[in-house]
Amino acid sequence: MLLPQKTLDYYNRELSYLRKYGVTFARRFPKIARRLGLAEGIYEDPHVERLVESFAFLTARIHQKIDEDMPELNNAIMEILAPQFMRQVPSVSLVQFQPEPATSVITGVLSVPRHSFLTSKPVDDVTCRFRTVYPVEILPIDLSEASLKQDPYDRNFILTLRFITWPAAQFQAQSIRLYLHGAPTITHGLYELLLSQVDEWQCYVDQQPVETTADNIQAIGFEEADCLCADDMAISPVHHLLRDYFSLLEKFLFIELPLPK
């Protein structure tokens, strides 16, 4: 019977180890090596050579069994210590609400409550139902321009965002929520800058400055109610955040800019 390739790889690895370190053993313990018929890693007695090969095969099977059973052992331990991390996480995604300005009748703030249900488009006559996590405010505005430049004098960065309101739109929103979309190397750095390195930010309405403070920029997604499975009371809030982070990192790339009253 031919050995499976995986078992053969384990066997060759064990045999190579015994031959390689057999040389070291022979040099350090020459008397014992002579009794074993071992000289510079080569066994003079063919019976000893067969014995070493048999031992390599046995240890190869042991190592293979340990490697194959290790995930099962880890899973069993995790089921006892932290069963919440072993549960299946349902499919998660980010959804964008994007009304058409030319045909939409939205003239003010349209609120989408938390835990609203959304239905996907059918694929092979199968539809999926999702539940929202964040409460969302759909605003009748468009982000028309976004730029990040460095001031040539003090070397600080200047982030400029320009919004355009829809025709006949009148709204009294308290904040604007933004999602940092892009490559992680860019969005993660920008996220840190916006939440910890902003000296000041200025808001202009119809080209008129409005007083604001940089401390009001808020991170989104860290409240207990914002967790993907917040209704599971058996999980601590800290573990909720950890599971959300590894399930959908993009969930935390939202920031909220307060608007002047």
TrEMBL record:
Name of protein: Type VI secretion system baseplate subunit TssF
Organism this protein belongs to: Arsenophonus endosymbiont of Trialeurodes vaporariorum
InterPro entries associated with the record: T6SS_TssF
PANTHER family the UniProt entry points to: CYTOPLASMIC PROTEIN-RELATED-RELATED, TYPE VI SECRETION SYSTEM COMPONENT TSSF1
